[in-house]
Write a structure and sequence with these properties.
Layout lengths: L33 H13 L3 E2 H4 L5 H5 L5 E4 L3 E2 L9 E2 L9 H12 L3 E6 L10 H14 L4 E5 L11 H5 L4 E3 L9 H4 L5 H14 L4 E8 L5 H13 L4 E6 L16 H14 L3 E4 L9 H17 L1
Parallel strand pairs: 2-5, 3-4, 5-6, 6-7, 7-8, 8-9, 9-10
Antiparallel strand pairs: 1-2
Helix pairs in contact: 4-5
Length: about 300
């Protein structure tokens, strides 16, 4: 693939290396069905599509692709920001591909997805941050796959005004924007982002269309403490977020932010219990939890929980 020859995070080359801690035994991916895995890989490749599964080196790729679940990455493989946790290439992106919405729609159809997850790199170079492209992808995917539910994981559209509304107008079933970490670590982990801008985005989505499920994700192991995690939970609930995911930060390379520690499975269970007590409709918390991990199953649970809550 052409992108493999590009330098990853060139601006970090002169930073001191952070040694990578050995992974504990409870962090390992699973290959469930090799035939389905290679079928997914073939469909993605033949349509010249990108997935965050590959570009961000997701630890769950073998398990998810074995179930034909792939999270599509739109607007190219190059991000305009350089978050210290992320393994996606940083640099100057190429122009948008006008055929991409049709290719995504066709791949969703070939994979026979009941629930499709679409994300993107940050595109600060675009006037709308890529909101209209998200709109086009969602609309075309719905046309060809009318029964497929759609989940988007978007950038923060920082300094792009109300361009995010265009994404909402396409009526995705789930609008996800990851908070990623606690506010005290933003300058180190997400220097191009603003914590309260991300919270405000999620709040505004819910204000604009209360029927869209809102979702956000948090990584742990970056150096945060329990009180800071709980504060993030409270902020997200104040913004009306329905679904929270909590997963372990896995350091991609020695050039990325150093891993502080691995949380144990029982610690993730405790965080889940705390989050559920805050009133989220759904909480997924485990070492390998990622934004789109088991997204199709989770969406079904979200729908059921909303109905149960309304009838309570």
């Amino acid at each position: 693939m052409e992108t493999k020859n590009k330098p990853r995070h060139p601006e970090k080359v002169n930073k001191p290396a952070n040694s990578i801690k050995k992974k504990p035994e409870w962090i390992k991916s699973k290959l469930l069905n090799s035939r389905e895995f290679f079928l997914t890989k073939t469909i993605v490749s033949q349509n010249n599509l990108l997935t965050v599964c590959q570009e961000a080196n997701c630890p769950n790729i073998t398990e998810c692709w074995s179930k034909r679940h792939a999270t599509f990455l739109i607007m190219g493989d190059t991000c305009t920001r350089a978050c210290a946790f992320c393994d996606v290439i940083t640099g100057k992106p190429k122009s948008l591909n006008p055929l991409e919405p049709f290719k995504i729609a066709a791949a969703v159809n070939k994979l026979n997805l009941k629930h499709a997850v679409i994300t993107s790199v940050d595109r600060d170079d675009l006037n709308d941050g890529g909101a209209n492209h998200f709109y086009e992808v969602i609309i075309e995917t719905k046309k060809l796959n009318p029964t497929t539910t759609i989940e988007v994981l978007t950038p923060d559209f920082l300094r792009k005004g109300d361009s995010y509304i265009k994404v909402i107008e396409a009526k995705p079933d789930v609008f996800n924007h990851n908070i990623e970490t606690v506010p005290g670590l933003y300058r180190q982990i997400r220097p191009g982002s603003r914590y309260f801008a991300s919270v405000e985005l999620l709040k505004n989505v819910k204000k604009f269309d209360k029927n869209i499920f809102t979702k956000s994700g948090l990584m742990v192991g970056l150096g945060e403490n329990k009180d800071e995690i709980i504060q993030v939970m409270d902020d997200l609930r104040s913004a009306g977020v329905d679904f929270l995911t909590i997963g372990q930060y896995l350091q991609p390379s020695v050039k990325h932010h150093a891993l502080d520690r691995y949380y144990k499975p029982d610690e993730f269970e405790k965080l889940k219990n705390i989050a559920e007590s805050k009133g989220f409709l759904l909480v997924s918390s485990s070492p390998l939890t990622r934004s789109s991990y088991h997204a199709d199953q989770d969406f079904a649970v979200l729908q059921k929980n909303r109905i149960d809550q309304a009838n309570a």
